Amino acid sequence: MYRTSDIMETISMIRDHNLDIRTTTMGISLLDCADSDIGKSCTKVYDKICRLAGNLVQTADTIEEKYGIPIVNQRVSVTPIAMLAGVSGGDPVLYAKALDRAAHEIGIDFIGGYSSLVQKGFAAGDRELIESIPRALCETELVCSSVNVGSTRAGINMDAVKLMGVKVKEAAELTADRQCIGAAKLVVFCNAVDDNPFMAGAFHGIGEADHVVSVGVSGPGVVRSVLASMPEDAPLDEVAETIKKTAFKITRVGQLVGSEAASMLNTRFGIVDLSLAPTPAIGDSVAHILEEIGLEQCGAHGTTAALAMLNDAVKKGGVMASSSVGGLSGAFIPVSEDEGMISAAREGTLSLEKLEAMTAVCSVGLDMIVIPGDTTPEVISAIIADEAAIGMVNSKTTAVRVIPAVGLKSGEELNFGGLLGYGPVMAVRTKSPAKMINRGGRIPAPLQSMKN
Fold first, then answer.
1. Burial class, 350, CB count within 10 angstroms (exposed 0-12 / middle 13-18 / buried 19+)
2. The dihedral of CA 204, 209, 212, 216: what is its sign?
3. Neighbouring C-beta atoms of residue 426, cutoff 10 Å
4. Pick from 265, 271, 199, 214: which is nearest to 51 by CA?
């Protein structure tokens, strides 16, 4: 079934170029856990997660040992908790604590879904959950949170955008003694997807099956290595074709792991999210891929074009390899998690404005960016609004995960440790957008939303 050369090539990808399964994520519907009594609902939530995902870590370890493929994280995503809070009432943080207890019990790395979908307005439970996010992230360890404030079909809920600017800052301030980690576990989306296996933005969409397993595959080092072996004068269409073929091979690894995990856990296989998600490790950088394509440094003129080509080629290769590609497949550009991005930001080649331009063509948005601790909530809201507008107009997912570094100024550094990495505090424009943000209301959906 397999050629020796293919097997040896895969071994080389794993051993020498940091190919890994970044995450196996079980998505679990909690709709049947809703109860008018919040205590009973929390008990149902805890029990269902432990029952369905109790063997997730053991399964990943077994597959890793069987195939020699590193599986870095095991995670769970759940139905947006605002929906349960709307039924039960009470303090939503009780749900966060139930999620955290379950995550610790089954031994996973993160659990996502302390979330709310408010792109067109607030329903029962939404505002209460959003108000509670900073406290929930402070009082738990493994819980991640997300809020969807806009979509191409609905426009942008600017009341929610205004509120999220405040909550991002509060999340950082409440966890200032822990490198402001609360803000690093909070994502604000436009056009959020239902089947994303990556944290911090993962939640289990209401259109999904009761429980599924999805995988996120990452291989920036593999792509960079292949490009490094090409002639320096190779035309860009050949470069794109090479990336596409490499992405195909990487996706097949994800398909294998996902299918086997689903079988072992007696659940459905969801999707492969082929995302070139970097880490702070040397050789595992999306920025270095762009530099291998021909830029002196990421952030130079031409960066957006190179990233657009990379993102498209990755998607084309993934779709060829599996009929179940989904999530946020493409290239991620989280600054603190990418050694090349960190270097470019330190030297001033990569600015917040350039990153915003790049988000128009990549998988997500402004991700893991450290900003000065004295940045106002209105400026944070305006950053969210700008990014949501890019997603809304371009019918793509965009997101903002910025970390106000309490007590730090532009040029200093914040170190999270581990997978979240470290990063320089990036300069933010300080002219006030307060008048616009305080207007509230809704930015109407663009004309291209009317496609039916």
1. buried
2. negative
3. 22
4. 265
Strands annotated E in 10-70:
20-28
Report the C-alpha gap between 112 and 197 in whole angstroms: 9
The two tokens of residue 142 are 């493994």
- HEC readout, 256-312: HHHHHHHHHCCCEEEEEEEEECCCCCCCCCHHHHHHHHCCCCCCCCCHHHHHHHHHH
- The answer to pTM > 0.85 is yes
Residues 332/278, Cβ–Cβ less than 8 Å: yes
Residue 152 token pair: 């191409």
pLDDT in tens, 182-191: 999 999 999 9
- Backbone φ and ψ of 165, nearest 5°: -60, -40
What's the rounded Cα separation, in Å, for the pair 29 and 13? 35
Element (H, E) at 448: none
Give residue 125's region: left, alpha or beta (phi > 0; psi -120 to 50): left
CA atoms within 13 A of residue 44's CA, in its CB half-sphere: 18
How far apart CA 368 and CA 366 sit, in angstroms, is 7
200 prior amide bond cis, ω within 30: yes
Identify the three-state secondary structure at position 211.
strand
Residue 272 contacts residue 324 (beta carbons within 8 Å): yes
d(CA 368, CA 204) in angstroms, rounded, equals 22
Tell the residue number behind the tokens 């050694």, with chain if given.
339
Residues whose CB is less than 8 angstroms from the CB of residue 172 and which lie 6 or more positions away in sequence, other chains included: 180, 182, 183, 373, 403, 404, 405, 406
3-state secondary structure of 147: strand
Domains of the chain (ranges plus CATH)? 1-452 (3.20.70.20)
- Tell me: the pLDDT tens digits for 216-264? 887 788 888 889 889 999 999 999 999 998 888 888 888 888 999 999 9
* 407, 175 contact by CB (below 8 A): no
3-state secondary structure of 445: coil
What φ, ψ does residue 152 adopt, rounded to 5°? -65, -35
Beta bridge partners of 111: 76, 143
User: 3-class SS at 48?
Assistant: helix
Q: Is 43 helix (H, G, I), strand (E, B) or coil?
A: helix
Radius of gyration of the chain from its Cα atoms, rounded to whole angstroms: 21
Residues 6 or more apart in contact with residue 66 via CB below 8 angstroms:
none
pLDDT at 6: 52
CA distance 52 to 250: 28
Give the integer Cα–Cα distance in Å for 278 and 338.
5
